[in-house]
Design a protein that fits this description.
homodimer; 242 residues; Cobalt-precorrin-4 Transmethylase, domain 1; Methyltransferase, Cobalt-precorrin-4 Transmethylase, Domain 2
Chain lengths: 242, 242
Amino acid sequence: MGKLYVIGIGPGGIDHMSLKAQKAIEESNIIVGYTKYIEMVKPLLQNKEIFSTGMRGEENRCKEALDLSKDNVVSLISTGDSGIYGMAGLILEMRKDEEVHVIPGITASSAAGSVVGAPLMHDNCNISLSDLMTPYEDIKKRVKLAAEGDFVISLYNPKSKGRPHYLKECIEIIKEYRKEDIPVAVVKNALREGEEATIVTLKDFNDEIVDMFSIVIVGNSKSYIKDGRFITPRGYNIRGEE
Amino acid sequence: MGKLYVIGIGPGGIDHMSLKAQKAIEESNIIVGYTKYIEMVKPLLQNKEIFSTGMRGEENRCKEALDLSKDNVVSLISTGDSGIYGMAGLILEMRKDEEVHVIPGITASSAAGSVVGAPLMHDNCNISLSDLMTPYEDIKKRVKLAAEGDFVISLYNPKSKGRPHYLKECIEIIKEYRKEDIPVAVVKNALREGEEATIVTLKDFNDEIVDMFSIVIVGNSKSYIKDGRFITPRGYNIRGEE
């Protein structure tokens, strides 16, 4: 009887994975994942059977991992947290009686936040701008309500070729509710090779520097920039005693 | 010249920390943190100077860590992600010219989510019900807008003696926007000693099992329970090809 670990490896590379994730990979004889993610954890993969796949066909990848897990210890890996826009949901939806363990990781907004300072210190939300599975009207509605609620907003999948204008439009929606001097961070490849981070104000934001490997973080009404770092205070009264 | 690492140790214990966090602690000669957090990483603390403090007085703890970091390598530790309701914000607010590095960790909603299944698979938000630094009216407004936007909602600090009714009231607000059969999870001490998890429906939710060590996760309109796991689909069309 085998089992399946659904692992979030964090931002990429070994350093920001949990020990638990590393141990699960060690225990596994088969590793399944998108080619680029497999590459990121290569030092851990000596003597493992590898099933790497392209980005599309997630359902097939999940089916394969579930089938293999009947007689093997299998790790299905993806970046970030396996439970946030990761593979854990689809696996549990498709699961019949296979033994499945979800192992969390550091999600992309946490990784990106740490690179630019402490933007996520107060109530915050993650919104994906991908319309592959969600109507764009619903996405825009969420952006509007999050802006109105003064959440710090992390935008996942902010841009792709098929929808080049979504990000710009969503930033315009946010501008209706936020002052133009609050910070916006664009972090590309956070905490992995090729990391690039930019902090600007909402007013000066230009979506041209954003690509599909970026996370965009928009501050709340109290966020500010100090010494090049993006800071959101924990509350509305920093002098208050906790 | 010293430096300060602001470290999120994740849910607690060594297993869910990142290797990066472990290395930073190893490199440090002084460790600062709340007594209970120090206890969680004790195996890493041989030959370290320890400054453990009570829960209150966070500003003093930060000041101490910053002062010590002028001539020492200091790790200031807290659970979860240091950048989400953690210590990174206050440190960067108070920082003068000290060298500060923020090291992220697995935040409590990710940890709690992994215990009950995959509740955070789609757009989601974190809201703290603590009113120490934020007016309760603002908190309720956020809960309302998050409910209206169909976000999966993770409630941090859901209950304390000083505000026993907030959670119940916020759940009532959510009920105005969600069907009563969607799942709600209460996870106490996620991924650490004393872990307890319960999944109920919004209709059957009873706030009596919730305490200050719990995270409460409320599903979106598509969330459901299958074989005892709390699943939120990735989108509104699971058959769509990505």
